Amino acid sequence: MTNHWVDLKNAKAFLIEGSNAAENHAMAMRWVMRAKEKGAVVIHVDPRFTRTSSTADIFAQIRPGTDIAFLGAIINYILQNKLYDEPYVKLNTNAAYLMRSDFGFHEGLFSGFNEKTFSYDTTSWGYELGPDGKPLKAESMEDPRCVFTKLKEHYSRYTFKVSADITGIPEAKIKQIADVLVKNRPATVMYALGMTQHTVGVQNIRGFGILQMLLGNMGKPGGGVNAMRGEPNVQGSTDFALLFNYLPGYLSYPKHTQPDLTTWTKSSGTFRAKFLVNLLKSWFGENATPENDFGYGWLPKINAKENYSIFRIFETAFEGKMKMLHVVGQNPMVTQPNLNLVHEGLTKLDMLVVQDIFLHETACFWEKPGVDPKQIQTEVIVLPAASFLEREGTKINSGRLVQWQYSKIKPVGQAKADLEIIDTLFNKIRDLYKGSTAERDQAILKANWQYPQENMVEAVLKEINGYNLNTGELNKSIGGLQPDGSTSCGNWVYAGVFANGENLSKRKDNKTDPGGLGTYPKFGWCWPGNIHILYNRASCDANGQPFDKDMPLVWWDEAQGKWTGYDVPDVPSATDGPNTPNGQKPYRMAGEGISRFVACTYKDPDPASPIGLPRDSSSTPGDGPIPEFYEPVESPTPNVLHPKVPVNPCLKYPRLKSQQPIGTSEEFPYVLSSSSMAEHWCAGSVTRNIPWLNELVKETTCELSPQLAQKLGIANGDMVKVWSARGEVVVRAMVTNRMQPLTVNGKTVDIVWMPYNWSFKGLSQAASTNLLTIDAGDPNTWIQETKACLVNLKKA
Amino acid sequence: MAQVAKLIDVTKCTACRGCQVACKQWNELPVEAPPKEMAFTGTLQSHPDLAPNTFTIIQFFEEKDDTNTVKYRFRKTGCMHCTDAACILVCEKKALTKLENGIVYRDKDKCIGCGYCAQNCPFQVPKVNPKTEKATKCTLCGDRIANKMKPACVTTCITGALDFGPRDEMLKKAKKRVETLQKQGVANANIYGEKELGGTNVIYVLADKPEAYGLPADPQIPLTATLWQQYGKPIGAAVFCASFATTLFAFFLNRKKDLAPKLHHHEGGKSHGV
Asked: In sequence order, which residues have a C-beta less than 8 Å from that of residue A381 and are 6 or more positions away?
C-alpha cells in the first residue's frame, strides 16, 4: 500500500478492482464502511458479483484479464477531456519531459523488440538528455515530443467502445465509473491478486499508477494505489527477499554479469549500493571490509538469463536437475497452477524437506489419489513447526506497519519456531563446512551468525535495524546509514524500528491521532521511517502548502524552517525547503524525483562518484514503458487491438512443451477465474483443519450462470466435470445470478469461477482447482496467470 | 436494570461470518456435521437453518431484478429476544423467562425439550437437540454481559454491522443510521424490532422491506400460543374443554414430530450439554 488501512476512511471514492476485499481482506471493509457513512462511492470491478460487490454502489462485471482495456479507456477519457489535475501533473510527473525520437509503438510492439529473445532493448524508451545527463523538459505538456503527448497518443485507441468490446462492461457503465472517479477526489484504489495474477500483472498495476497520477490522488490521505497483501505476512516476506530476484529491502539480487560491487552499482546506483554495503556488514560483520568489497564476492550470483521463480523449481526437478527441496510454510501441491507438473517434479527429487504445522499435500504428495507410492523414491522429511500463535515476532501488514506479536503458548509436541529450526540447521551446516578453503563455502563460514537462544527474535530485529559499528548504538534512521562500512543494517527500509534502543513495533498507542486522519504515529512502527502515506510531499503545492485545505497531512513550516505535519514528511531532508532542489522531489525514490507516466529508462548521474556511477537507475518493466492490453495466454477471443501480437510479447510459454499445453477456445469455450475465499485461505492447510470453517464452506464449487447451466442441463448442486488442457476435476455446481455471461467482441462469453483452496489432505477434502489452471507467468515477476484460463464443462 | 439490545445493521454486513465462528467458539458449540455430511444449501449460506449447535447464521438472499441488477443481501439470524415472547408463553416448565435487562433466558435444567417454544416462535429460532433433549438458542451472551463484555459476535464484527448497548441508545443509533441511509438514496431503509412484539432486544437496520430479508412484516404471537397461555397452561392437564384440549394437544403432538431439524446431526468433538 502507498497509504494504509485506516486511511481508507478518508477516501471519497473507491475503485476496488481485482479484489474481493470483503472476503479476502475482510478488515478493509471496516474502513470502507466508515467512508461510506460519509457518502463515499464504492465501485467494484470483478469477473463475478461477490460479497464485496454487495457493498458497492456500482458493480461492473469484467472479463478476466482485460483490466488494461478498462483502465485505458478511463485514462483516455480523462486525457481527451482534460479532466486531469493539471497543477498536480505539472508539479509531480514526467509529463513535460522530452522522450527520445526513436521511441515508438506499432502493432502491439514497442520500439526495440527482439523477436528471437522475446525481449526489448529498452534504450529507445529513454529521455532526451542535456549535457549534464539530466532529462530535457518541454515548454509545455502539449509538445509533440514529450511524455504526456506519447501517453495521449498511446491511449487514443482505447475508446469506450473498444473497451466495452474487450472487457464486456457496457460503454455507459465505463463512462459512469470514469465520471465518478473524476468527481470524487481523493479516490483510492484497492487491489489484490485479481490484478496481479496475469501475464500482464505489473502493467495492470502501472495502469492504476497512471490513473491516480492523472487524478492527483497520489501521496494524499484517502488516495493512493493500495495492494492488499496476503494474510500469512506476505508484506513482511517480500520485504525480506521472499522473491528470487531481490535481496532484503528490494535490492536487486546480484547476477553473474555483476561480479563485483562496482558492476552491481552500475546497474542499481550508488543510492542503493550504500544499503547493500550495510546489508553485507550485517551478514559478514568484521569479515566485510572495503578491500574485499564487503564480501560481495561471497554471495552466489544468479545467471542473468535464467528464471529462478517457483515455476522453475518444479520444472528443474522434473528435468532431473534438482536433488533436494526444502519447503517452509508453503503448500505448493495446492497453490501452484498446473498441479500435475508440480507432482511430477516432486517425484523426481532425491529428498524433500517440509517444515510446516500440518502434514499437508506437499508433505504427502505421494498420497495423491491414483498414485502408487511404491513408484516414488523421494525421501520426505518433515520438520514440525510451531504455529503463529506459539512464537513471538513481528508481522507486517499491507500498510507496511510492523507490529510485535507476543506469545506465551508453548509449541505442541516436538514443534519448534521456524527461527529456531533455521538457526539449528545453519549451525550444523557451518560445522560441516569447517576448515574448507573453497571460495563457494565462504559465505557460510564468514557469516556473522551468533544469536542468543533467549529472546532470539528480538536479537534478529536489532540486527535488521542495524548498528553504528563505532559506537555500538542501534541505528536511529535510514539517514544515519553510511556507505563506508561504519554502520550495518539488515534491511535498510527497517532502519529505525529499534531507534534509541526501543522496540517500536511493540507500541500500542491507539489514541494519539493528530489531525484525525488515522495515522496513529505511535502505534507500532511503519517502514520507511514511520512514513504512513508514501510520497506525501505530493499532497502539497510548489510552496509546500497542502492542496486540500480540509485534509492537510504534511507541509513546509516557514517559521520553523522545516517540513512538518501529522505524518512524517516523505522528503529527502526535513530542513530543505520548497526553494531548494530537495524540496521539489515528491517521488524522491525515482532518479528524476518525480513520478513517471511513461516508465522511461533513466540513470540519474551521481556527481559525487569519481568513476561516473549513476546515483539511481529507473526500474522499468521489461515488457513495456506504458501498459498495453494483451489477451491472456488462453483467451476466448482474438486481440482486436493488434491481432498479430495477441499476448504479452515478452512471454516465454510453454517452457516445457510436453507439460504445458495451451487450450483453444474451440475445445475449451469457457473462461475460468479462480481465487481464495473468506472461510479458506491459500492452500487451506490451516483453515481446512478447523471444523468451524469447514462447516461454513465445505468443498470446491464451480460458480456458473443460470444461462450456462440451462444450456448444459446442469441444476444447482449437481456434480460437474470441469476440464482444461492440463487436467480435470469433478466438483459441485453452484448456479447463481452473480455470474452472468458477457458480450465480448460481439459474441457471448461465459465465465465460471472456482476457489482453489482444496485438495486431498486435511479435515475437508475436495478437488483441486489448480489441476486446471495455467502456469504461464508475468515476464517481470513470474506470478502465475491463475485468474484467466480456458475450460470445458459438463454434468458429471 | 436498563434494557440492553444488540443492533444489527445489515447495510454494513459483508457476510464474513466471523460472528458465526465467534458464537461457536464462545459457547463451545461443536459443528453440526463433518464436511461430507453437510447438505448443499444452494448458496454460500452455511446451514439451511439455525440448528441445535448453531445459534446464529448469516442468511444469504440472492435475486436479480428486471434491470439485470443482482441483489445480494445478508442477514444475521438468531433469537430476537422479544418482549412479547411466544416461547415464554408456551413454556410449560418455566424454563424460559424474560430477564430485567431484556434477555430471553433459558434455564437449561428446567428445559425438557418439549419443543413448544420452537413451534410457536414467530421467527422459528429455538431448536431442540434430539440427543440432549434440550431446546437451544442465542443467549445474547448473558455471561459476557454480566462481566461487562459485549456479546462474542459483536466483539468480533469488523465492519461495525453489530453493536451492543442500552436499548434506547441502540434505537437512537438505528434511527440516525436510517436517516443517513435515506439521505444517501436508500429510500426503503427501516428499523425492525422497535415495536414488533412489544419491542425486541435485537434491533435491525434494514435497507429494504423485512420480507426481502426473510423476516415477517408483522410478526405475531401465534393464536395457539395465546390460547395456551390463557386457557391451557393454568389448568394444565385438567379438563378445560375436553374436545378443545384434545384438539389442541393433538396439534402440538403432531407438530412435535416435525421438529427434528432438517440437518443430519453429528456430535463432532466433545459432547456438549446444551
From this structure: A351, A352, A353, A354
Question: What is d(CA A129, CA A364) in angstroms, rounded to the nearest whole number?
Answer: 58
Q: Per the structure block, which three cell numbers stand in for A286?
A: 568484521
CATH number of the domain to which A694 belongs? 2.40.40.20
pLDDT tens track for A509-567: 999 999 999 999 999 999 999 999 999 999 999 999 999 999 999 999 999 999 999 99
Domain that includes residue B202, residue range: 1-63+72-274
Number of domains composing chain B: 1
Contacts 24+ apart (CB under 8 A), A484-487: A484/A277, A484/A290, A485/A277, A485/A281, A485/A288, A485/A289, A485/A290, A485/A294, A487/A278, A487/A281
- The nearest CA of chain B is from the CA of A764 a distance in Å of 6
Minimal CA separation from B15 to chain A, in Å:
7
The Cα A516–Cα A561 span in angstroms is: 24
* Domain-located, residue A401: no
For chain A, what is the domain count? 2
A201: buried, middle or exposed (CB in 10 Å: 19+, 13-18, 0-12)?
buried
Last residue of a domain, one of A227, A261, A279: A227
Rounded to two decimals, the ipTM of the complex is 0.95
User: A304 in a domain, yes or no?
Assistant: no
Looking at residue A364, its pLDDT comes to 98
Q: List the one residue out of B124, B45, B133 whose CA is nearest residue B86.
A: B124
The band of A619, judged by pLDDT with boundaries at 50, 70 and 90, is confident
C-alpha B138/C-alpha A769 separation (Å) is 37
CATH number, domain at B180? 3.30.70.20
**Could you tell me the CATH number of the domain that includes residue A13?**
3.40.228.10
Which of A177, A198, A227 is the endpoint of a domain?
A: A227
Q: Which domain holds residue A31?
A: 6-227
Q: Is residue A618 part of a domain?
A: no
Per-residue pLDDT reduced to its tens digit, B181-225: 999 999 999 999 999 999 999 999 999 999 999 999 999 999 888
Residue B231: predicted pLDDT: 73
Contacts of A732 in chain B (CB under 8 A): 40
Reported as a pLDDT band with limits 50, 70 and 90, residue B272 is very low
Interface list for chain B against chain A, based on CB atoms closer than 8 Å:
12, 14-18, 20-21, 24-25, 30-36, 38, 40, 42-44, 46-47, 62-64, 68, 70, 72-74, 158-161, 180, 184, 268-269
Residue A24 has, within 13 A of its CA and on its CB side, a CA count of 26
Determine, yes or no, domain membership for A665: yes
Q: In what order do the strands lie in the sheet with A401-405?
A: A393-396, A401-405, A525-526
Q: Which chain A residue shows the shortest CA-CA distance from B25? A: A692
Q: What is the secondary structure of A113-135 as a DSSP string?
A: EETTTTEE-GGGGSB-B-TTSPB
